[in-house]
Amino acid sequence: MGERPLNNTSTERGWLTPVSDDPEYDLALDRLLSRWVRNVSGLPDKLVRPRWQKEQPPLLPVDTNWCAFGVISVPVDNGPAFTQQTDEGVQLWRHEAFECMASFYGPGGMALASRFRDGISVSQNNAELNELGLSLGGCSDLTPFPELINQQWVRRYDMTVHLRRKVVREYGIKTILSAPVQFFGE
Question: I need a labelling partner for 65 at 20 to 30 A (CA). Which of 102, 129, 156, 169 fits?
Fold first, then answer.
């Protein structure tokens, strides 16, 4: 990445980077979402796959029900808030959104997509999602999207799910305790 300042605080000039850990992104986020899709849909572990992988696994047989998912968009929140100012630093809060596409394949693809859509509406399932630091924003219609794979039509049903989370990053922006200022006049 970039060069970090020696002390990474606002007491010296230069770039600042967060002093706190990042939330899950990339592969860690894929794993978190995989667990969520698997638990709500009832599909076994090996039948919920990230849509894009470094090494694509072989395609499953056409008579297998399975799901591919992935983050397709991260809409921007242009209103971050700086809060929790202390002598040591400040927190940046941003509400992050994700649009995730889930594609359910196989002879029972519509039933699985429907089960997942209904399952994400259950309050207990949402409580479990909240424990992962995410909240449900809504979902799209189910869209039939049959796919020709190896000269065979495979049933496929797509839906987009909107998720949100609050991201908190801490920066070493110090408070001004005193300043060398002189006032002239009365």
Answer: 129
Taken in order 57, 53, 155, 46, the sign of the CA dihedral is positive
- Paired tokens of 38: 């698997």
Written as one letter, the residue type at 40 is V
CATH number, domain at 121? 3.30.70
Residue ranges making up the domain that contains 121 = 26-52+64-171
Per-residue pLDDT tens over the stretch 38-97: 999 999 989 999 998 888 888 889 899 999 999 999 988 888 898 878 888 899 999 999
- 142 belongs to a structural domain: yes
In a domain, 33, yes or no: yes
> Is 115 inside a domain boundary?
yes
Q: What CA–CA distance (Å, rounded) separates 121 from 148?
A: 31
| Bridge partner residues of 83 (DSSP) | 91
Could you tell me the CA-to-CA distances from 34 to 2, 64, 91, 147, 184 in Å, in that order? 31, 18, 30, 22, 65
